[in-house]
């Protein structure tokens, strides 16, 4: 009986992992990535619009991001969004596209990104624990025997441990990517 509750709520654990990966995509490494800029909010015809909805973003070289707006009138608002953002990237407009050179990271900046990475991984683990608590409460409220409840708790904890292990492996991989010169 408790297995159905656990399986039904596994999607919430998966959502935490997906969100964690999306957040990690925003952390700069030494290489260019479209995830760094695709959700940059651009003031486009009176509304805040993600950059990926108004332009094509490509990575022609390891340290270059190329942005080709669909509307040629949006060059200035895209440049303005970059200058106002906290990304620290300088756009260069050549009339056809906007190029952004991603500078190499200093050792200090790499350490700052690792701290940010550790904070994001801890937030993901907290979200996993919240999901676990919700599932545990659902199991506890079920009309089943105490032994079944505690078997459900043990199974739930094994699943939580698997997700925490996945978060840690993703974190280690990203940390190695950040620290790589």
SSE order, one letter for each helix or strand: HEEEEHEEHH
Radius of gyration equals: 21 Å
Mean pLDDT: 87
Contiguous helical run count: 4
What does this protein structure show overall?
The chain is α+β, with helices and mostly antiparallel strands and 181 residues long. The protein has two domains: 2-26 and 106-179, Ribosome-recycling factor (Topoisomerase I, Chain A, domain 4), CATH 1.10.132.20; 34-101, Gyrase A, domain 2 (2-Layer Sandwich). It is 56% helix and 15% strand. The protein has four helices and six strands, in the order H-E-E-E-E-H-E-E-H-H. It has a four-stranded antiparallel beta sheet. Helix 1 runs antiparallel to helix 3 and helix 1 runs parallel beside helix 4. The N and C termini lie far apart (51 Å). The model has no long low-confidence stretch (mean pLDDT 87).
How would you summarize this macromolecular structure in one to three sentences?
By secondary structure, the chain is α+β, with helices and mostly antiparallel strands. Helices cover 56% and strands 15% of the residues.
């Amino acid at each position: 009986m408790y297995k159905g509750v656990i399986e039904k709520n596994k999607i919430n654990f998966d959502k935490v992992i997906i969100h964690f990966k999306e957040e990690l995509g925003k952390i700069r490494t030494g290489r260019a990535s479209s995830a760094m800029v695709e959700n940059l909010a651009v003031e486009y015809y009176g509304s805040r619009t993600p950059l990926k909805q108004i332009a094509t973003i490509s990575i022609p070289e390891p340290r270059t991001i190329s942005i080709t707006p669909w509307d040629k009138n949006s060059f200035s608002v895209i440049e303005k969004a970059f200058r106002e953002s906290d990304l620290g990237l300088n756009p260069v407009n050549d009339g056809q596209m906007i190029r952004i050179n991603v500078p190499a990271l200093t050792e200090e900046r790499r350490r700052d990104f690792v701290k940010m990475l550790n904070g994001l991984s801890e937030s993901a683990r907290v979200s996993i624990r919240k999901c676990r608590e919700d599932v545990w409460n659902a199991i506890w409220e079920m009309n089943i025997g105490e032994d079944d409840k505690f078997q459900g708790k043990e199974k739930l904890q094994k699943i939580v441990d698997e997700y925490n292990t996945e978060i840690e492996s993703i974190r280690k991989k990203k940390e190695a990517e950040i620290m790589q010169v």
